[in-house]
Every structure is written in structure tokens, then in C-alpha cells.
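In response to the reviewer comment on reproducibility (Comment 2.3), we provide here a single inverse folding case reported in full, input and output, so that an independent group could reproduce the run without further information from us. The C-alpha cells appear first.
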């Protein structure tokens, strides 16, 4: 079975179970934090793939990484299901699939603005308004980053859509144009 299909199926089942129990937003927060933990701590994936680490230890590690507590019984049930089906090593992909599904169902747009220098509050507010008008409804998970390699300007990512208004992108376009002539 396709490695992308398995996480999507688990994510859908988890979402439906969480929605039935009115715990879908809590599960979203937990799985978003879990995905972020995988991104920030590369050894987490290695531990999940290690056959010498027990399933119980992996479950405990994932619980801690997600910030779950004793009240998060649905999260614990999900981990037990993954352990029983020998799928704990897919926890990151399942978390990412759940986060995507939740955002889709709730009209949440992941927006990242990367600028060459920190934006002023006025610039940030103007961009937020422009982006809100562009997405035409729903809510935004808005994040600002700084990347000096852009030289100047900014880049906006909204889901899979990207607008690059940076000096670095314009210079790259000019190089390509000059190389084609």
C-alpha cells in the first residue's frame, strides 16, 4: 500500500473519531505540536524507526513530544492503535496528514511571510489584510520569518501557493533571461 495513502487513511479515521467526541481541535493542537517536534528534533524519527526501542517507550516519547496529558485519552488510544498495527514509525506522516485535513475542513490557511528584514508592524498589518482579501474567508495561521538571502522584498506562501517578490527571485529571473539570449 502507498506510504502516502496509509497516513491519510489513519488521519481521516482519527479526525472522524475526534470530531464525534468534539475533540478534533484538541487533537489538531496535539498532532501539530507532534509534527513540529519531528521537524525540530531529527533524532525523534530515528528513535521511531529503531526496532530495539519498545512500543511502550515510543508511545511515551510521542506523548511527551505532543504535549499530551492524562486527559488526552483519544491521543493515547491513537498511539495504542498505531502500536498494535506496527505503525508508530508513521506517526509524523499521520500527524501531518491530520493537520492538513483539519485545516481543510475548518478553512484554515497556513500562511508564511518571509522577508529579508523584519517587517514593521504597519507592513505586517498591511500584508495580513492583503492576504486575508486574497484567501477570501477562512482563518489564517500566520507566521513571519526573516531570511537575509532574499536581499530585499518578501515571499508569501499560502498552502501550496507562493508569491516571491524578493530581490533574490528577481535577480534569478534576470540571470535566466540573460542566459536564454
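Designed residues, in position order:
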Amino acid at each position: 500500500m502507498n506510504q502516502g495513502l496509509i497516513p491519510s487513511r489513519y488521519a481521516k479515521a482519527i479526525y472522524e473519531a475526534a470530531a464525534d467526541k468534539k475533540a478534533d481541535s484538541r487533537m489538531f493542537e496535539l498532532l501539530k505540536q507532534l509534527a513540529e517536534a519531528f521537524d525540530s528534533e531529527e533524532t525523534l524519527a530515528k528513535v521511531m524507526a529503531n526496532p530495539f526501542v519498545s512500543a511502550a517507550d515510543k508511545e511515551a516519547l510521542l506523548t511527551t513530544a505532543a504535549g499530551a496529558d492524562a486527559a488526552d485519552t483519544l491521543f493515547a488510544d491513537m498511539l495504542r492503535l498505531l502500536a498494535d498495527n506496527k505503525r508508530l514509525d508513521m506517526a509524523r506522516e499521520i500527524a501531518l496528514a491530520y493537520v492538513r485535513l483539519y485545516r481543510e475542513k475548518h478553512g484554515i490557511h497556513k500562511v508564511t511571510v518571509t522577508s529579508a528584514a523584519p517587517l514593521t508592524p504597519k507592513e505586517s498589518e498591511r500584508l495580513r489584510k492583503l492576504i486575508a482579501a486574497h484567501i477570501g474567508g477562512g482563518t489564517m495561521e500566520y507566521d513571519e520569518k526573516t531570511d537575509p538571502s532574499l536581499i530585499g522584498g518578501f515571499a508569501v506562501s499560502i498552502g501550496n501557493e507562493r508569491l516571491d517578490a524578493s530581490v533574490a527571485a528577481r535577480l534569478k529571473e534576470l540571470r535566466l533571461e540573460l542566459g536564454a539570449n
